[in-house]
Predict the 3D structure of the following.
Amino acid sequence: MRPFEYFRPSSLADAAQLGAVSGAKYIAGGTNLVDLMKLGVEQPDRVVDLRDVLEQEIQELEDGSIRIGAGVRNTDLASHPLIRRQYPAMSRAIVAGASGQIRNVATTGGNLLQRTRCVYFQDVSRPCNKRAPGTGCPALESGGLSRGLAIFRTSEECIATHPSDLAVALVAFDAELALWRDGQERRLPLEQLYTSQESAPGRETILEPGEIITAVHLPAPVDGRRSHYVKVRDRASFAFSLVSVAAAVELDGDTVRGVRIALGGVASRPWRARSAEQAIQGAPATSANFSRAIRDELTTAVPTADNRFKLALAHNLVVSTLEELI
């Protein structure tokens, strides 16, 4: 491991200043960054530890919305009564995402900023456009390993997938981020955090140097909404999604009054299935309608020969999840 400077600031202002310089990386739980440093993928000149400056509380606000501090540990978030009662898909997503030991250390903000687990990204002996732009993407070459990678392409240079289960559930619930920079906090829909990667596959978020996620905001829960998170993977643990779905439904009799669908394991960011939502909302809550809507959503996918199975998997997973919710 290369030598690096280590700082543990006591204020957001100091953390922002220390993290704004070239070669600096933030760390909270360290469950992703430390692994990448060991592999040589990340080689920061400076590591800024945020554990003393991040919020670590879950608060229900006056309007019924929930503010989750970026420093809240995954275990505490998954087990919190408010989350389990009002956003059960989030609890399920967190538990599906990692072992108990990792959840005890990993933080809410850090979970959203995980980098891909693509084997080529993590192997510094191989070319990778995300790690070293312009070197190529072996996954897109003949014989490349692409089974677990994206079917929705946000870049023609890279088909790596985003690994966070929690991010998928939060996108389904229209979560917003509180971002701190230059002494001010701004709000940003979580869905807008992730870049399209069309021009720069190595840049995964819109965060500027020195900008820090301080909290996640969940809108007030909707009466009668049911939600669920389902993840399909190769092993029951220590495996990332082949396809996952976070879904929420509100019914008015036999009609779908509201629906949210987000997919994981299919793109470089959590994939909100908005066209499918539009087709289902206001229609009868039938398997045929669910099937037609998600099939149309998947027409924009561009799978490889090795991950074409994800089309059927995503279709069946969405339909079965919605069927269970109704």
About this structure: Residues 1-53 form a domain with the Uridine Diphospho-n-acetylenolpyruvylglucosamine Reductase; domain 2 fold (CATH 3.30.43.10). The mean pLDDT is 96.
